[in-house]
Structure formats: structure tokens, C-alpha cells
Design a protein that fits this description.
The complex is a heterodimer. Chain A is α/β, with parallel strands linked by helices. Chain A contains seven helices and 17 strands. In chain A, helix 2 packs across helix 3. The longest helix of chain A is centred in the last third of the chain and has 18 residues. Chain B is of the alpha/beta class. Chain B has six helices and 15 strands. In chain B, helix 2 links the parallel strand 6 and strand 7. The model of chain B has no long low-confidence stretch (mean pLDDT about 95). The chains are: A alpha/beta, B alpha/beta. Chains A and B meet through helix 2, helix 3, strand 7, strand 8 and strand 9 of A and helix 3, helix 4, strand 9, strand 10 and strand 11 of B. Strand 12 of chain A pairs antiparallel with strand 11 of chain B. The complex binds flavin-adenine dinucleotide (FAD) and adenosine monophosphate. Flavin-adenine dinucleotide binds next to helix 5, helix 6 and helix 7 of chain A.
Chain lengths: ~325, ~250
């Protein structure tokens, strides 16, 4: 069977968790087995995992799940996996997933792939495709163990939402004191975090200075998009560091990436070239970004961006 | 504080990526190799700062063939005290982590540091595996680490922000931007690196669990569709009707 660790938070199954469940469901169908979602910590409606494809839910509760500690959480997930004799363990390639995948592989004597972008090919063994060389290529990896651990790249698939509520099995879990002590978390409120965003509006040094970001924020808010920036922009503290995308920042894969006043250096592209649709706005027709773009606008961003925001408003008004 | 820093070699960030032998092998032709940026800029430099503040030793470890020696020497030039290379061509991250954990068990390390990911494999797997093999805590994607005695206060990158946690040594930590500032080796460091010990050890024989069967390149983008800067209504229409992303 396929076991899916579905991340939850703020009372719901997070988008990354929904994607992992649907991925696990598709894989289970292919393998002709059932799939179970495991949820760690408080969640009011664990049966909701069924909407995204889970056949069953194991809801594990206990004080260990108030805060994240990879060591403890990996133990809980692998306990359930062993108990259910899972052949596959699926999770998200999120910040938590990245801390868990390797640990789970060791605990389960499993091979693993992190950041899979497609459902495995089971025709001849288990072959999984993932991005390597920072988005410049894909590798097909053969997993050679009985148990397999796969983490799913964000936005790799659209979660299904029409499944029936799944039966829930509760499980109280007590663990040794975690060795990592939580102190605090600082999160930007109100916007979708970059790795989960479907639309991203990103701006670079062409903006001239932080005081000009109003037009970027307006465009983003009109689109319901999250804002991002190039590295020199974050390095000069024009924008917060968590907005920095690229090889040394975060890698994202939105459906729509709008790059404004960014030249398109290879290290920037490494973090964004998996976006489905790329729009580039730049006054220099020779900017390398245009080679990676689907749509391009050659023009002064200070004129083009407000015009684009207005056009979106008009579209919305027209319905 | 004795710190083991895991370093790997990767193609330069600007390298053109291609494959040979029916797309089963990376084409090294004309490619410059560097130390994985997260290992060099952040993990190694933070390790050196800890040693400067508290004393101890910084040891580099790399699992790879002799062509890794050049990046190991660079690490020594930046300031590491000594280095170990496990002499094998690893097929997957499990092999890498097994070798590193086996070596770490033979020494007395307070801390094992890795980069947040290799820019070649984009795995973020090795650090977590070492931590599980050692049964140590793992702090993933650390952008800040303050160390007082054996207690570390660490900021971790999470979706849309950061989380601050506290942990005692020993532990494994993976380094992200912010953890330290890049250091450029100076002439003295480069000269000294030549005399620092680089021990080459055989692998322990842990078998790989996965293999890469082939590579492919992303589909070439069709050439860009340019839209008149005066006609943003047309761009919106295209995004809505053609690209279907609005
Ligand atoms: C190892 C390494 C890792 C790196 N990692 C990253 C990374 O993770 N992310 C990253 O972003 N960079 C990274 N970089 C830096 C990268 O090489 C580039 O220097 C950087 O991306 C450039 O940022 P930019 O496009 O904002 O600025 P610039 O290159 O200065 O480009 C500004 C662009 O704005 C345009 N422009 C100016 N004025 C206007 C206007 N009025 N209207 C329209 N367009 C205008 C210009 O034509 C130009 O194309 C890395 C570099 C190295 C060496
Ligand atoms: N062959 C290797 N030798 C030593 N350390 C490695 C090796 N491969 C990966 N690492 C370390 O593990 C980190 C994460 O790599 P990865 O899990 O491959 O993304 C890297 O930043 C290195 O610190």
C-alpha cells in the first residue's frame, strides 16, 4: 500500500499535503493498491484527506506534534509505515519534507527520490523523474529497494478535490522528549508562501530602489500573486530575504511567473525555469530572460506595469 | 568544537549542461567544477567561525574520486584544518551518507555540517540521512546559528518565513544563505593548504539503493511571443485564453 504523509497546519491540510495525497492516490491506482494518509498533530477534519484521494486516514496525535522535529516525526511516520507494511511512502518536497525524506529512507531501508515531478513509471521496476542541475535537466531514477520513499515537487500536479470523506483511525503516540526545542516562528501573514504560490510577480534591479515597489505590490495583489525578487535586490535589503528566488535562493514552480526588470542570469533562471508560463518585462530587447520567456514585453517597466495592472482590473470588471 | 563539514563538487553555476552516451552520463567536456556553493560559502565558513570563537578543529569530508581533490584543497585554503576523501564514485545519496556516517562514528565530532542541497542533485537528502544514521537531531536549511557553549539557537527557512529552535550538540545542520559570508582564500591560505593533511580512505562498501538510468533536457521553449507595450489588454487576453493561467 501507499502511505502518504500529508502536511497540515492552521487547521487544514496544506496545499503541499493535498498534492502529496493526490500523487499517492494516482500511484496507488497504478500499482493496484490502496492509499492511506497519515496526519500528525491537531486537525479538525482529518476525513478531508479523502477529498484529495486518500482511501483511509491515520490521525496521530500527541504532544510531540505541536512543533516540528524531524527526528521524532520521522519515527512516527515510519512506525505507521511499518505497521501498515507500506511499499511506498509519499511526502511533499517542502521544508519539512526535505528534513524527513532522508531520515525515512534510512529508517525504512528504502531508496528515495526527492522532488519527483511525475507519477512513477512502474512498467519495469520503479522509475521516477525529477529535476537535477538546478532545473537545467531531468534525471530518471530507478529505485531498487522493496520500500520506496518519494517526495513530490510543489505544483507537480493539481490536487483532486472530489473524493469522498475517508474513514479515520485515531492513534495516540507518545514519544521521548524531542531534542529540538521550538522557540518561535516568524511568518508573513496574509499571502501564500512563495513555494506554494501559483502566481508570482518578481522584480529585479531594474526597479532602481525599494521605494518603487508599490507598482509591483499592486500588480501582485490584483493577480492574487506572491512577490519575489532577484538576488541583488535581497542582498541590498530592498526586499526581505525570503523573497529571493534562484539558485542560491528558493526554487519555485508556479503556473505564472512575471519577471520585471530582471536580466535573466543563469543563476536566477535556475530557480524559476520550471514555471509553467513565464512573462518577461524588460526595456532591453537583448535581455537573456526573453530566451526563457513565453510572453515578452519590451518596454519601460514604470509604464508597462501600471498598464498591466489596469488591464487586469478591466478584465475582472468585464467578468 | 570539532566540526565535520561535508563538501561535494558540482559543475559551475554557469555551466552548460549536456549529456553523452545516449543521455546516461553527464558531459564533463569544457565544464568547470567548483565546490557546491552552500558547502563552501555557508557551511564551511560558519564552521571556521565556530572554531575561531571556541577552538577545536574543522575537518572536510568528500565522497568521490581524485577529481574532488581540487575542491578539497580549496576548502583547506579557505581555512579547514584537514580533509578526508572517501575514494569511490557514489551512485546515490545513501552511499554518500553511509560513508560519511561511518567516518563520523570513528571520530569525535560535535557537529556535522552539509549544504542545504547539492546544486547538481537537488536532493537535500544527505544531511537528513547522516542524522538518522547517527541518531542525531537534524536542522534543515539553517540561515543563522548562534552557539553558546554546546547550545545552538538556529533559524530555519520555512515556507514564507522562518522558525527559531534550540538544540544541543551533537547534531547535523544543513546550511542555507545567511548562515555566513563567503570567504575568498588568500595567498597564505593557498600555500598552507598544500601542506595540510588530505587523507584518502577506501569506501566501506555500502551498496547503493538507486541509480540514474538517464537524463533529459527540458523542452526548448518556443520563441517568445512579444506583446506591444501599449497593449497590455492583449497580454491579459493571451494569459487568459491561450496560456489559461488567469
Ligand atoms: C554563484 C552565484 C549564484 C547566484 N544566485 C542567484 C540567485 O539565486 N538568484 C538571482 O536572482 N541571482 C543570483 N545570482 C546573481 C545573478 O548572476 C545576477 O547577477 C542577478 O540575477 C541579476 O539580478 P537582476 O536581474 O535583478 O539585475 P540586473 O542583471 O542588473 O538586471 C536588471 C534588468 O533590469 C532591466 N531594466 C532596467 N531598468 C528598466 C526599466 N526601467 N524597465 C524595464 N527594465 C529595466 C535591465 O535591462 C536589466 O535586464 C548568482 C550569482 C552567482 C555568481
Ligand atoms: N559526495 C559527497 N561528499 C561529501 N558530501 C556530500 C556529497 N554529496 C552531498 N554531500 C553533502 O550533502 C549536501 C546535500 O547534498 P544532496 O543531498 O545531494 O542535495 C551537500 O551540500 C554536501 O554538503
Amino acid at each position: 500500500m501507499v502511505l502518504i504523509f500529508a502536511e497540515s497546519g492552521d487547521g487544514k491540510i496544506r496545499k503541499a499535503g493535498q498534492e502529496a495525497i493526490t500523487y499517492g492516490k494516482r500511484l496507488a491506482e497504478k500499482a493496484g493498491v490502496s492509499c492511506t494518509a497519515v496526519i500528525l498533530g491537531p486537525l479538525d477534519h482529518p476525513e478531508d484527506a479523502g477529498k484529495y484521494g486518500a482511501d483511509q486516514v491515520v490521525h496521530v496525535t500527541g504532544p510531540a506534534f505541536d512543533h516540528f522535529d524531524a527526528q521524532v516525526w520521522a519515527r512516527a511516520i515510519s512506525d505507521v509505515a511499518l505497521e501498515k507494511q507500506a511499499g511506498y511512502v509519499i511526502l511533499s518536497h517542502s521544508s519539512r519534507g526535505k528534513a524527513l525524506t532522508g531520515r525515512l529512507a534510512i529508517r525504512l531501508n528504502a531508496a528515495c527520490v526527492s522532488g519527483a515531478n511525475d507519477i512513477p513509471d512502474l512498467g519495469n521496476g520503479c522509475l521516477v523523474s525529477k529535476g537535477v542541475y538546478s532545473g537545467k535537466a531531468f534525471a530518471t531514477i530507478r529505485l531498487e529497494t522493496d520500500v520506496k520513499v518519494i517526495s513530490v515537487m510543489g505544483n507537480a500536479l493539481q490536487p483532486m478535490t472530489d473524493g469522498a470523506p475517508a474513514p479515520v483511525q485515531g492513534l495516540a503516540w507518545s514519544a521521548a522528549e524531542p531534542r529540538v526545542k521550538f522557540l518561535k516562528s516568524d511568518k508573513v501573514e496574509g499571502t501564500v508562501p512563495l513555494p506554494e504560490a501559483e502566481k508570482v510577480v518578481s522584480a529585479g534591479r531594474g526597479m532602481k530602489g525599494p521605494e518603487n515597489w508599490g507598482i509591483i505590490e499592486e500588480l501582485a495583489s490584483e493577480l492574487g500573486a506572491t512577490t519575489a525578487c532577484s538576488r541583488p535586490v535581497a542582498d541590498s535589503d530592498w526586499r526581505p530575504h525570503h523573497e529571493h528566488v534562484g539558485q542560491t535562493g528558493i526554487a519555485i514552480r508556479p503556473n505564472l511567473y512575471i519577471a520585471i526588470g530582471i536580466s535573466g542570469a543563469i543563476q536566477h533562471l535556475a530557480g524559476v525555469n520550471r514555471s509553467k508560463v513565464i512573462v518577461v518585462i524588460n526595456k532591453d530587447p537583448e535581455a537573456p530572460f526573453f530566451k526563457a520567456a513565453d510572453y515578452g514585453v519590451v518596454g519601460d517597466l514604470f509604464e508597462v506595469v501600471p498598464r498591466l495592472t489596469q488591464a487586469i482590473r478591466n478584465m475582472k470588471a468585464a467578468g | 568544537m570539532n566540526v565535520l563539514v561535508c563538501v561535494t563538487k558540482t559543475p559551475d553555476t554557469t555551466a552548460k549542461i549536456g549529456f553523452v552516451e545516449q543521455n546516461t552520463r553527464f558531459d564533463q567536456n569544457g565544464v568547470q567544477f567548483i565546490m557546491n556553493p552552500y558547502d563552501e560559502w555557508y557551511a564551511l565558513v560558519r564552521a571556521l567561525e565556530l572554531k575561531e570563537a571556541q577552538g577545536g578543529k574543522v575537518t572536510l569530508i568528500s565522497v568521490g574520486l581524485a577529481d574532488c581533490d581540487q575542491v578539497i584543497r580549496k576548502g583547506l585554503a579557505i581555512g579547514a584544518d584537514e580533509a578526508v576523501r572517501i575514494d569511490m564514485d557514489p551512485a546515490d545519496s545513501f552511499q554518500v551518507a553511509s560513508e560519511i556516517a561511518a567516518y563520523a562514528r570513528s571520530g569525535e565530532f560535535d557537529l556535522i555540517m552539509t549544504g542545504k542541497e547539492s546544486i547538481e542533485s537537488n536532493g537535500s537528502e544527505v544531511g537528513a540521512m547522516i542524522a538518522e544514521l547517527m541518531d542525531w537531531p537534524f536542522l534543515s536549511y539553517a540561515s543563522k546559528m548562534e552557539m553558546v557553549g554546546s547550545t545552538a539557537t538556529v533559524d530555519l527557512e520555512i515556507e514564507g518565513g522562518e522558525e527559531t529552535v534550540q538544540v544541543n550538540t551533537p547534531f547535523v545542520i544543513s546550511a542555507a544563505k545567511g548562515l555566513a559570508e563567503q570567504r575568498i582564500p588568500n595567498m597564505r591560505g593557498i600555500m598552507m593548504a598544500k601542506t595540510k593533511p588530505l587523507q584518502v580512505l577506501p569506501g566501506s562498501g555500502a551498496a547503493a539503493r538507486s541509480s540514474i538510468v538517464g537524463y533529459s533536457l527540458p523542452k526548448e521553449k518556443a520563441s517568445v511571443h512579444l506583446v506591444d507595450p501599449e497593449r497590455m489588454d492583449e497580454l491579459v487576453r493571451l494569459l487568459k485564453e491561450e496560456a489559461k493561467v488567469l
